[in-house]
Amino acid sequence: MKKFYQLGIQERWQNLVNEGLVIPNIAQNLTRSFNLNEKQLSIFTENVISQFHLPVGLVKGLKVNGKKYLIPIATYEPSVVAALNKATHYVNENKGIIVTGEKLPVSGQIFINCKDKMTVNLKRLRLKETELKQIGESAVPNLVKRGGGIKRLTFNAFGELLVVTVITDTGEAMGANLVDTIVEKLAPVISKITGGEIISAILSNLPSGEPFKAQAKIPIDTIGIDAAKKIEQLSNISRFNLPRATTNNKGVMNGLIGAVVATGNDDRAVNAAMNAYLIENQQYSLTFWKILKGNLVGTFKGYLPIGTVGGAISTHPDARNFLSLLKINNSTELSHVLMAVGLSSNFSALLALVTNGIQEGHMRLQAKSIALNAGVGLDSINRVVAEMIRIKKFDTLTARKINENIKKGLT
Ligand code: MEV
C-alpha cells in the first residue's frame, strides 16, 4: 500500500475522507482552482493537497534612487497596497527614496566538538584554508562558473567547540542552498582533519557585512507641520516603547514582506535577518523619523537576504513573472526597491495614524468587501461604499438595499 506522501492530490483527499478526517465538501472546495499543475506544486512541498492563492496588488511608480518601479505586493491585508500607492505622492520628490548598500556575502557555519588538541587543530586548519576552499567550491561548480565562490574561511575555538565560518559570494542568488551544499561538503573533511565530531553544518541567515539603508525626505509642507511633528513624536516613542515599536515594525513588514513574497523570496529569512539587525544594534524600531531643515526624514536600516535567481524564483512561474515587472538588473537593485517599500509602508501607516486614524481607510475597504460579497457589481461599488460609510452601516443587507436603490434611481 502506498504511503500518504506517495499519493496524488485526489488520492490524498480520498484517503482523508475515507478515514473520516474531512468531509467531501472541503476536498472539493480546496481542489477547485490551481494555476500550477500537480507536478509543479510537488516541487514546493511534500504531501501537497492544495494551493494557497494570495491577491497581488500593484504599487505603481514608487521612485527609488531616481527610477520609478512597478512593484507587485502579495497580501491579504486590504489597506497595504492602497497605503503604498498613497505614499508614492509624498516620497517621490526629487530622486525619491535613496537606498544604499550592496548584496552581501552569505556565511555558513560548521560546528564541531573537538575534545583535545584545539591549538594544533586551528593551526592545521588555517594552513589548509586554500585546499578547503577548493573542496568547498567543488560542490558548487556552477556558482564558480558564474563568478561566485568562497571568499574566506575563519576558524574559531570556544572551549572544546570549533566554529568554522565559510563566507561565500553567492552571486545573484539568496544562496541558502549553495551555502548549505558547501558546508555539508566541508564538514566531514574538517571532522577528519581534527578528529572532532560534527554537530551541524548550515548557513547563517545573518548576512555578512553592512546593512542596507533607505532614506525618505518628505517636504513638510506636503503633509503639514502638525502631522510631521506627531510622526516624529511617534517615532521617538518607538525608541523606548517596545509595544509601539513592534506595531511600527509590523507596518514596515506589511509592504516589505508583500514584495518579498511576490518576487519568490524567502520571507522567513528576511524576518529573521531584520530581527537580528535589531538585536545586534540594541534597538526596538526598524525606522526613525525626524524633522530636518523643512523635511520629515525617515531612515530604515536592516539586512535583506534575498536574491533574483534560484529557489522559488526559478521554480515558481508566477514569481518569475512578478519579478519581471520590476525590471531590475540585479539583487542589489531589488533590495533597494524592497527597502523603499518597507519605509513607504511605514510612512503611510504613520501618516494615517496621526491624521484620520487607521480605521477610516480600513472601513472603506471593509465596506467594499462586504458589498462585493453581497453581489454589488463593479459599476455601482463606489457609490454603495460611499453610502455605507455615510450611514455607518456595514452589513450585507444594507449593501444590497443601497444597491437596489441606486438601480431604481432612488439614491
Ligand atoms: C496595520 O497593519 C499596521 C499599523 O498598525 C502600523 C503602525 O501602527 O505603525 C497601522
- N-to-C span: 65 Å
- Report the major sheet: 4 strands, antiparallel
Q: How large is the share of residues in beta strands?
A: 15-25%
Number of helical regions: 18
Structural class: alpha+beta
**H-E string:** HHHEEHEEHHHEEHEEHHHHEEHHHHHH
How would the blueprint of this fold be written?
Blueprint: H1 9-18, H2 24-30, H3 38-44, E1 56-64, E2 67-74, H4 79-91, E3 98-100, E4 106-113, H5 118-127, H6 129-138, H7 141-145, E5 149-158, E6 161-169, H8 176-194, E7 197-203, E8 212-219, H9 220-223, H10 225-240, H11 242-262, H12 267-280, E9 287-292, E10 295-302, H13 311-315, H14 317-326, H15 331-354, H16 359-373, H17 381-391, H18 396-407
Helix pairs in contact: 4-15, 6-8, 10-11, 11-15, 16-17, 17-18
Bound molecules: (R)-mevalonate.
Describe the model.
The protein has a four-stranded antiparallel sheet. Strands 5-6-4-7 form a four-stranded antiparallel sheet, covered by helices on one side. It folds into four domains: 4-44, no CATH class; 56-101 and 210-355, 3-hydroxy-3-methylglutaryl-coenzyme A Reductase, Chain A, domain 2, CATH 3.90.770.10; 106-203, Alpha-Beta Plaits (2-Layer Sandwich); 360-408, Helicase, Ruva Protein, domain 3 (Orthogonal Bundle). Strand 1 and strand 2 form a beta hairpin. 52% of the residues lie in helices and 18% in strands. It is of the alpha+beta class and 411 residues long. Bound molecules: (R)-mevalonate.
